[in-house]
Amino acid sequence: MGTGETLLVGLLVLVLAVALLSNALVLLCCAYRAELRARASGVLLVNLSLGHLLLAVLDMPFTLLGVLHGRPPSAPGTCQAIGFLDTFLASNAALSVAALSADQWLAVGFPLRCAGLLRPRNAGLLLACAWGQSLAFAVAALGCSWLGYSSAFASCSLRLPPEPEHLRFAAFTAAFHAVGFALPLAVLCLTSLGVLRVARSHCRRMDTVAKKALVLLTDLHPSVRQRCLIRQKQRHHRATRKIGVSIATFLICFAPYVVTRLVELVPSVTVNPHWGILSKCLTYSKAAADPFMCFLLCRPFRQVLAGMVHQLLKRSPPPASAHHSSLDAENDSCLQQSL
Question: Cα–Cα distance between 226 and 231 in angstroms, integer?
Fold first, then answer.
């Protein structure tokens, strides 16, 4: 095994370990504290983390074995089953991110008008649509015998069929990535811009109030006034930075693999195995990045994790906030900022 394969194996092992641990922690937090799963965003969150966990348990190890041994699993039908799960879970994860982003846009932009829509039952309907759409593509690929081992990606997934079926496979691949990548990306961008507009409007109102307060407080030292103004400017950029990171992560993780899959359809193009495996690793890295970016770094999840650790060590938990509902408010705020 060369240096390139060794680095790719190390990257896969790291992504696999982080995805297993982080998504298991998210699900454990949601199971431990009912407030984290009591809203529509909580249901979508559990679905996203569960899909990532299944991807880490049932898909990534076989790609790791493919890189190590350069061949598919020996058991008959195993590679087709893994390819079915890979197709289903990849599409479902992207659509779940889009649904979660749309839910947070409704919560931020129309808190009163859409309050009745932000219920776990409606979230279940959204997830049913996402699961049905992902399942339809996976079943179609399985029925057309387009699932198998792809040496360019060292994984069981979609593979190029014989020459007579190239046109049908190209149409299927284009439709699959249009629904599983382009559509979620468009939803993510549009809803993020909506959240950003609301955040900027909120910051402007806060700036107006703060400036009036600074005018009234004439006994403040000039350095204190300057620090207040600097913090106001930092708030303006914080929402933009978080939304930009969210969109950039989606593109970095999914775009290389999607572009490579589309370029692979050109008859004269041969995908380099090192690049193909690296692009596949990047799609896996979304399963490891989402829990940290969206949830585990937020205060409500940190509080729940701290309470679980204290309970495990049989210590009294740290003092909670004055109102139990503050956890809900911080959870919603954190999810809105992260997406």
Answer: 9
**CATH of range 3-306; options 3.40.50.1240, 1.20.1070.10, 3.20.20.120, 1.20.58.100:** 1.20.1070.10
Question: Using one digit for the tens of pLDDT, what is the confidence trace for 235-282?
Answer: 666 667 777 888 888 999 999 999 999 999 998 888 999 999 999 999
Alpha-carbon Rg for the chain in angstroms: 23
DSSP for 96-135 reads HHHHHHHHHHHHHH-TTTTTTT-SHHHHHHHHHHHHHHHH
The answer to whether the CB of 277 falls within 8 A of the CB of 8 is yes
Degrees (nearest 5) of the Cα angle 301, 115, 124? 65
Provide the CB-side half-sphere exposure for 196 (13 A, CA): 18
The predicted-structure confidence for 309-324, as pLDDT tens digits, reads as follows 777 777 655 554 444 4
d(CA 132, CA 122): 15
Of the candidates 86, 77, 112, 110, the residue with the CA atom closest to the CA atom of residue 176: 86
Residue 70, number of CB atoms within 10 A of its CB: 13
